[in-house]
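SEVERITY: medium
COMPONENT: batch folding queue
REPORTER: lab tech (J.R.)

DESCRIPTION
The queue accepted two submissions in a row. Attaching both inputs and their returned structure tokens so the on-call engineer can compare them side by side.

ATTACHMENT 1
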Amino acid sequence: MQSVCVYCGSNPGAAPEYAKAAAALGTHLAREGLRLVYGGGQVGLMGILADAAVEAGGAVTGVIPDFLHHREIAHPRVSDMRVVASMHERKQVMADEADGFIALPGGIGTMEELFEIWTWSQLGRHVKPVGLINVAGYYDGLLAFLDRMQGDGFIQDRHRAMLISGSDPANVLARMAVYHHPGVIPSLERARM
């Protein structure tokens, strides 16, 4: 991986652990030489994440729709800021620019982005790893629900295994770096035959 897209809240959240985790992830990405791709804002966890990456000397690409340019306040310290026409274009540019995806705590926008990119992986539209940082148990309920979906037969075991989760960003990134998309290589081999 050379770049990681991070989905996270445009609000800082109620617990100080969320901001601390966003800053730690931004710093870690920069120190590992991984370019941060994110939603482009300077508010909430997005801003904390980008600030930390910039301050640690990392490369950062922000992608923000024109209509949110002022509301989420495009980050002035991000030199590679892409202003796009729509949310759909934002998500596509972020997907194209990243070699992997991580969700930090966030709201419904973060959930929508996470589930869409994970669904694209399940459908074979990309073979990039998808991770989730479970800060202070924030995603405990979601992970339990996903296990229920798996147990009830709505998510196949191999698709559930596609979502790499943990509380330590370094561990999640290390597991993402060796990720192998299940079932894709054989289908690519068949296509070459």
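ATTACHMENT 2
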Amino acid sequence: MARILKGLPVAQALTKELAARAGALTQSDVVPTLAIVRVGGREDDLSYERGAVKRCEAVGIATKKFVLASDCAQRDLIDVIGQVNADEGIHGCLMFRPLPAHLDEPAACAAISADKDVDCLTQGSLYGVFAQREMGFPPCTAEACIELLDHYGYELEGADVCVVGRSLVIGKPVSMMLQARNATVTMCHTRTRDLAAKCRAADILVVAAGHAGTIGADAVREGQVVVDVGINWDAAAGRLVGDVAFDEVEPLVAAITPVPGGVGSVTTAVLAKHVVQAAERKALHCGKC
């Protein structure tokens, strides 16, 4: 039976550490603050917003909400982003995506200050991830994978890691972050030839393909650690499932993350981490910390 790598203990440990750091900033008259920019009221956005606000409260981060109508004009969204950029008391900006189809999402993302981009929406943040520079921040979910592996004590240096998925949200950035930790990374996707064999060769398997059941029993082996980043709705089962066929894979591997309750549980804690880091950077620049 595999070790189940739950996200809650990881998030709790991060929250405790971040609360101490946020408290130190507050004593220096710097209150870490997150701006939440939301267009419309999609239920998945509202659900994540509730979780993010709750996590921020636990850490000691203030939140400011900027909510626009779903039919707002592009200039209204850009004006709100400009307000966030100009507000010296705001350290991080979270803008929910996807935006409504009539809005220019790339232009909106580009308008966010890289210093306040706490979820890798800007090219500056992506450059920081790929060039290993302290510019912007990595995607929260990608970093949550690393936090989870670190928390449970899995050594990344020298490990053979297979990443299934090539998006700019998870697959590509998490591959770069793993390489920065001296892992040897093989990047794959759903059209990779003999995907199962490449997955079986890895010590650690990170799956972010975006399709339920992408990885089954034929793609794993004894001793592996499997990190399932996928979140899919299984209508037949009436529940959320990952990209890994959990019931098939769990008896065969050494450790696996559940869905739900795995990587996703760590994401808001990483978001809070980025806000605290942004506040620390600004305080250091201003000589307040």
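NOTES FROM REPORTER
The CA atoms of residues 159 and 183 lie 5 Å apart.
No errors were logged for either attachment.
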